[in-house]
Amino acid sequence: MLIVQAPAKVNLGLAVHRRRPDGYHDISTLFLKISLVDTVRLTVQPREIVVHCEHPEVPSDARNLVHRAAVALQPLAVPRQGVHLTLEKTIPVAAGLGGGSSDAAATLLGLNTLWQLGLSSVELCPRTFYLVLVKPPIAVSTAWVYQQLRFELTAPPKDTNILRQCLESGDIEGLGVACFNDLEAVVLRHFPIVQDVKRALVQPGVCGVCMSGSGPTVYALCPSWDVAHEVASAVRQRGWGVWVCCPWQNVTPELA
Asked: What is the model's pTM?
């Protein structure tokens, strides 16, 4: 058996551009992988791909991105092999934290090792600060948010380069000031509770507060564990889902 952890992400910046003919949108964004993780367990079996997940909102059939990832990679396995994939969910579902995509990426990473494919992997960013994630008890459809989006012709284009520079230089205060999300205005208009979460996270020591992805999860950038712990303790009293995380460090699959 091989075990791979799949980190959640927050969007430090998210700029939405044109709508493409296929119905999707071009975006510019900067992801930060964090230490809130799902776990993917992989076991070789003959030819068949099977996915098992006990979370009631996560399908175990071909609709699951984990299954699709395995199917896409299987033709590269010579001789042809199968896999039994057990997905243990910790990342909230439909929360703008990229759990499904990360699970699929972890599956590709694990299968690269399990099936001995010899494909290259990517480097992950270092740990430099902490984040407090808060998810109110609602679900927001990504497709719906994009459908509600209206482009302002006079709005200046946003750039994620400054975010990358702050992240690489360790300028957490600058990073907090520069964070943005074009989808946030849509969600705030229709879901006032997300605005309540943002207000609750604006506390002493917090460098910046922003919604991640299509929401409803909001993150606060904190320069230290102490600040993050104080913020989390304060907002946890509201009954929302709260997690304290840090940027994800490089990880390799583990044999079990």
From this structure: 0.56
Domain total for the chain? Answer: 2
DSSP conformational letter for 218? E
CATH number, residue 109: 3.30.230.10
- Our measurement of the distance from residue 14's CA atom to the centroid of its chain's CA atoms, rounded to an integer in Å, reads 13
Q: What is the DSSP letter of 95?
A: S
Taking only the tens place, the pLDDT of each residue in 7-44 is 999 998 888 876 766 666 767 788 889 999 999 999 99
Please check whether residues 118 and 147 belong to one and the same domain. Answer: no
Residue 99 exposure: Cα atoms within 13 Å on the Cβ side: 21
Angle at 109 (CA atoms; ends 105, 115), nearest 5 degrees:
130
Instruction: For residue 81, count other CB atoms closer than 10 A to its CB.
Output: 17
The encoded tokens of residue 37 equal 């993780």
Question: What pLDDT, in 10s, does the model give residues 61-97?
Answer: 988 999 988 988 888 888 889 999 999 999 999 899 9
Sign of CA dihedral 143, 161, 197, 149: negative
Final residue belonging to a domain, choices 123, 141, 161? 123
The H or E element that residue 102 is part of is: helix 99-114
Q: What is the DSSP letter of 92?
A: P
- Distance (Å, whole) CA 83 – CA 65: 15
Tokens 């102490």 locate to 226
The CA distance from 228 to 239, in Å, is 17
